[in-house]
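Appendix B. Raw example, untouched.
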Amino acid sequence: MEQTFPPLKNDLLLRAARGEQTERAPVWVMRQAGRYLPEFRETRKDHEFFEMCRTPELATEVTLQPIRRYKGLVDAAIIFSDILVIPQAMGMEVLMNPGPFFPDPLDTPSDVSKLSPTVDVDKELGYVFKAITRTRTMLEGDVPLIGFCGAPWTLMGYMIEGGSSKTLQKAKTWLFKYPEESNALLFRIADICVDYLVGQVKAGAQLLQVFDSNAGDLSPYDFITFSLPTLKHIASKLRERLTSQSLPSVPLTLFAKGASPTLAARAGFDTIGLDWTVDPRDVASLPVEVALQGNLDPSVLFGGREAIEREVCRMSQAFLAARGGVCRGWIANLGHGITPGVEPDDLKFFFECVHKYSSPGSKAMP
């Protein structure tokens, strides 16, 4: 049955994601519901990480915490969850200890047989859908709600490495030693991503983001060979499914950290996220219909108010210049997730500076 939600009062994010001109840049941050907030740490004190993900009431509460704290300043909520719920749905055990740990990773292609042959996302990930519906209702239309998943290459990396890795040596060995088996696993994950994202839209998500956090660990050739085809598959199949089921055609964002934005744009998403190593003026050749998201270095938030204002002003000027002097198709964000040690009031100042400097008529700092 189709959900009924309160009308949206702030559609700035959705307009920007569709490449439209806006009065200023909408702003939110990745890992917005997270450890930098004392109220999050208080909630987390009594609950294991994945318990919070799997309990809709808790996931809703931590999703809403930054919306309450930064009311009128932040333009989106992102559901509290984790990209690794997909490997869990596929039958793998994932612990958070404190970072992600897989007790039984995939060592060789024969280990793929240990995965569940099929995944019923409603059964395995229905708790995320319940959290989305609950959160969308409790937002009362103040801001749109973002859903997300990890990209196949990034998820495969975790499943093989058994956790975070600086080199991804085991996962990349698979690509070069077992290319056919790697592609089969990547597309298997991609199909689950499509099912999962469709379910999120059914539940009430108004924009979707795919995180390819390990994209930059691949050479351009290997990104084109292994990751890009699965990203194209997700974008095209997702849109087909949304249309065939008469669901909203929500905007799609791809954050392929470290990959060439021009290569990432080939995947067919509405918005391309930029990390802080990219000058938006260097991707000005992308069609104006492709929105951009980013891209302040998260470490700037530790630099004090003067540095935050200076760097937000500089970032704003670069994005406005990349769009011919107008605020069109730009979503302000960090170039990666916010880190735990940030003072909440410094993030508030970041939001205030984006409001101040992202409109075309704003003056640069003296």
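End of appendix B.
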